[in-house]
Specification:
This protein has 266 residues and is α+β, with helices and mostly antiparallel strands. Helix content is 38%, strand content 32%. The protein contains eight helices and 18 strands.
Length: 266
């Protein structure tokens, strides 16, 4: 007995994501020339965000920071305004594309306006207040999560276009992309699936497929026929002509729906 199931790569992505402990771990670089301030940032990160943050590098100079950023590709940078060999703002001017978040740290508040122009996530004055620090980092984490969720949604929408039907036979399981299905034809309690390269009998009736396949892509032309809209060339009398040369009957009740589709298509 054959079995059939609905399969999408989206389901595979979902399973993979659940195997991960935390997909939003942020890579952090600390660019700070004061050792005490650097140690405070490290301590607070581990105190509040042990499971959310991975510190991947440190630097005290503008000259060392650029190659560090290119190598590690951090999600978040703690950037002191004044470094050993220049200003943190000078470093940012050397970067073509700032694709990371920035939290400025400094003892001088007169750089705040310039920092904002670089879209800093926050601006912390030294000595760093732990609660302000916690709020700033949490803001960065939330922003990262929001961005990742948008990416995931886009990925799932992309996979959605590759949905397929899985038909298991005695010999093998056929994964048939929706876009490769030309038509489906009722054969008692079975259904004949005609694809661009094959013909497969499935042990589900045509109604099952009509409910499973997207109605914006498939149209019921007859009690016994379900057709992929993109393969319909034209309608003539009581038949539609498909791209593969087949002629499929159109019932009186379905004729207007088919004509409306073809008129809108053209």
């Amino acid at each position: 007995m054959q079995k059939i199931a609905c399969f999408t790569k989206k389901n595979v992505i979902f399973a993979q994501n659940h195997k991960q402990t935390n997909e939003y771990i942020m890579k952090v670089v600390i660019i700070e020339d004061e050792l005490d301030a650097r140690n405070v940032i490290k301590f607070l990160l581990r105190q509040f965000f042990q499971d959310d943050i991975n510190i991947v590098g440190y630097s005290a100079k503008v000259s060392d920071s650029l190659p560090l950023i290119k190598k590690e590709k951090p999600d978040l940078i703690f950037l002191d305004v004044r470094l050993e060999d220049g200003l943190g703002l000078d470093l940012l001017k050397k970067i073509d594309k700032i694709d990371f978040q920035i939290i400025f740290t400094t003892a001088y508040d007169n750089y705040a306006i310039k920092a904002i122009k670089f879209a800093a996530i926050d601006y912390l004055l030294k000595p760093i207040n732990p609660e302000e620090f916690k709020t700033a980092v949490q803001k960065a984490i939330d922003k990262k999560q929001e961005f990742q969720e948008l990416l995931k949604l886009q990925e799932e929408l992309d996979w959605e276009s590759e949905q397929a039907i899985a038909v298991k036979t005695a010999e093998q399981t056929h994964f048939i992309p929706y876009k490769d299905i030309i038509r489906l034809e009722a054969d008692g309690s079975y259904t004949l699936i005609v694809t661009v390269s094959n013909k497969i009998f499935a042990s589900k009736n045509l109604k099952f497929f009509e409910q499973t396949l997207p109605d914006n892509a498939f149209i019921r032309t007859h009690q016994s026929h379900l057709v992929n809209k993109k393969y319909i060339n034209f309608i003539k009398n009581d038949f539609i002509k498909l791209e593969n040369g087949e002629e499929i009957p159109v019932s009186f009740r379905k004729k207007n729906a088919v004509k409306n589709f073809l008129n809108n298509k053209n």
